[in-house]
Design brief:
alpha+beta; eight-stranded antiparallel β-barrel; 3 helices
Length: 224
């Protein structure tokens, strides 16, 4: 009788551990993501209002999206020149070459600052996703304030047939070459969102010409 009792307990324990392992596999972030961003960074960004979607079954997000208005949610600190609600220049985001097995995707950014991902990895499930990437950005040729920046970029939202609902992006400055000191400090970060709640899907990766005679009147989101 005792042997049967122990066998039942062992079976139940095995089932519990198995279920727990399945839950752990379906949640959290991949090893690639954990190598890119620390738990401390994730916890801090969450405390500042960034929604992060965990999981290993993200949707296919390939396409071009426009964050407009590109609105500040959380400044990098008291010394930030801009307050919550400030609108930076629009940002176009292109996701391509998504690999569902490796949970990776290529990301390119376009504004007055152009950038490409050195490594971008996905988390999420169903229609919600979060992308973690390392982006190298640079000013346009001939810019009077030339710079190059390496930043951690995070994009998070919910995929719909019209675009990305509730898009948020976080940027953390990792390194920079910035002789005129126009970029936010190394180690600092901002959280920005699409101000109307939808980063609309678009067919073109080109930015429209400015409507007035003062190009780049608005600042890029990584500038002071």
């Amino acid at each position: 009788m005792k042997k049967l009792h122990y066998a039942v307990i062992a079976a139940l324990l095995g089932l519990t551990l198995s279920c727990k392992k399945e839950e752990e596999v379906g949640k959290g972030f991949s090893e690639n993501i954990q190598n890119l961003v620390s738990k401390e960074m994730i916890d801090e960004l969450r405390s500042r209002g960034l929604n992060l979607n965990e999981g290993t079954t993200p949707p296919v997000i390939e396409g071009i999206y426009l964050s407009s208005p590109h609105e500040l949610v959380s400044p990098y600190g008291e010394e930030d020149s801009y307050e919550t609600g400030y609108e930076f220049e629009d940002l176009k985001i292109r996701f391509s070459n998504q690999d569902q097995e490796n949970l990776s995707v290529k990301v390119d950014l376009k504004g007055s600052t152009n950038g490409s991902g050195q490594g971008a990895f996905l988390a999420g499930s169903v229609n919600k996703f979060t992308l973690f990437s390392e982006i190298v950005s640079h000013s346009e040729d001939g810019d009077e304030d030339p710079y190059t920046a390496t930043q951690i970029r995070i994009f998070s939202g919910e995929l719909t047939d019209k675009g990305i609902k509730n898009l948020q992006t976080a940027l953390i400055m990792k390194a920079k070459t910035d002789p005129n000191d126009v970029l936010i400090p190394v180690g600092s970060g901002r959280i920005i969102k699409d101000g109307d709640g939808l980063a609309a899907k678009t067919n073109s990766f080109r930015m429209a010409a400015p409507e007035n005679s003062t190009p780049h009147k608005l600042k890029a989101d990584l500038q002071k």
